[in-house]
Every structure is written in structure tokens, then in C-alpha cells.
Write a structure and sequence with these properties.
Elements: H1 2-9, H2 11-32, H3 38-69, H4 79-98, H5 109-114, H6 127-150, H7 154-180, H8 185-211, H9 216-243, H10 248-271, H11 287-294
Helix pairs in contact: 2-7, 2-8, 3-7, 3-9, 3-10, 4-9, 6-7, 6-8, 6-9, 7-8, 9-10
Amino acid sequence: MIPIILFCMGPLYISLVIVIVSLGAGLLPQVFANKISSQSLTDLTGFASGLLLASAFLVVVPEGFHTAATGDGVFSSDPLVMGLAALAGFIVLLALEGLGIGHAVHEEHHDHATGHGHEHVHHPFSGRVIAIGLSAHALADGVAIGAAAASGETSFSLLVAFAVVVHRVPAALSLGIFLLHQPGGRRSALKGLLLFTFATPAALALSYLVLNDVDESILALVLLFSAGTFVYVATIDTLPAIHNPATGQRSVRNVLSSAAVLSIILILLNNAGVLEHSHLEGDYNHDDVHVEESL
């Protein structure tokens, strides 16, 4: 009962924000399709990817190793296994991409939004498949936030949620633009957008409830797996623009600048003590176990 109450007090609000942001950004193309430029969307994607990368390496990975150090499981002291968990997150999304369940919808908006995009980009899949692909990756976002919430660290879970929410803006915009140009019209586009929108909250709720009572070493592996998915998504989102000679330098600057800004903010917060861990101070997941053992 207690985990459900805590879920309603925290992750539920995060879920509501994700739904509002996803639907809002995804529906914008239906009203302002001709006013959303390819360059603006590319810039927004670059900024969001920089935040996602910084979050992966400076927030999720350190928290994953810290959580593992407090666990009692067989993996709690095996750095190789933890490294494999992060690699698995990257490889799983890479494999999905190879199967056509991809995340790289950002390449498509160049053609649809402006009508004079890159000639070498030809996506063989339908809008429904693209929506399913983005939704599969949205599930990974939900697992990341759910695992962060299950760790009991409020500042950590909010930082992860912030990175996910910011990244969903260009993803939802791109999906909204792409779906508008697929057969089925607005109704079909709305169905795909709803699937993408609610995938993350569903995965967030399920992962939070499942991971709430697991040992810290298992939770650490899930966190590191999520870090690997963050790195993949940030990479696949920005590489097309970086490889394009016309936008390459600008895209790199966008990624680096947003990553640098978040890094500075995290350093300042850490020095101010805001990011201090509190697993033994009100952690609702495992406090009772630790207290009993100490007695």
C-alpha cells in the first residue's frame, strides 16, 4: 500500500507532465506544420541530446554505481557486469533499429516539413511502424524514470525525468510532422501520437512498482541499462545532422553547449549539497532492512 501512495505523490506527477508535453508538442504540427522549420527542429534535437548525454554520464551512471555499492546482491561488486548492463541498453536499441523498430524519425522531417530535404533519406516503413518504434524507446525512458524513483533519491529522479521530458519535445514534434504525411489523416496521426505519449508513463508505473522492493544491485543494473539507452538515443538523434556538411558544426555546438550547461549546473548543485545521497535517510525502499540489520 505504501509504494502505491508514494507513487501517486511523485512519479504520477511526472507522468502527467510527460503526457502534457508529448501531446502538446505532437499536436503542434497539426496547427503550425508550415511554421516549424527543419533547422529549428534540428537545433532543438541537438540541445536535447546534449542534456540527455550529460544526464547519462553525470547522473545515471554515477547513481548506478553508487546504488550497486549499497546492495547485497552478487553483482554489487562486479564492475564488468555493470558495464555490460550499460552496453546492453545501447545494443538493445541498436538491434531494434536494425529490425526496423527505429528511433531515427528525425531524418524524415527534413523532407516533410520543408519539401526539399536530403535525397538520400528514404524510410521504408509506415507511420504506424515509426510510432511503434518511438514508443518502444519511450518504454525505455519510462523504465529509467521508474528505476530512478525506486532508488528513493528525489533529486536524482527529477534530473532523469527532466532529461527525458526535454528530449520528448523534438521527438514528439518530429513524430507529429511525420504522421501527418502518412495515409489515414489526423485520426491515424493521433492514434500513433497517443501510443507514443502513454508508453513512457505505463513503463514508469510498472517499473517503479516492480523495482521498489528489489535489491540495490539489481536496481543498479537497470539504471545502467537505462544509461546505455540514453546514450544511444542521443547519438542516433544527432548523427544525421552532424554528418550533413551544412548543419554538422552547428549541431555539434548545440550538443556541446547544452551538455556543458547541464554539467556546470550539476557541479554547482553538487557543491551546494543538493545532490547528496540519502539512501539511509528516509529511503522508503530499503530503510527497514538496513535498520534491522544494524540492530
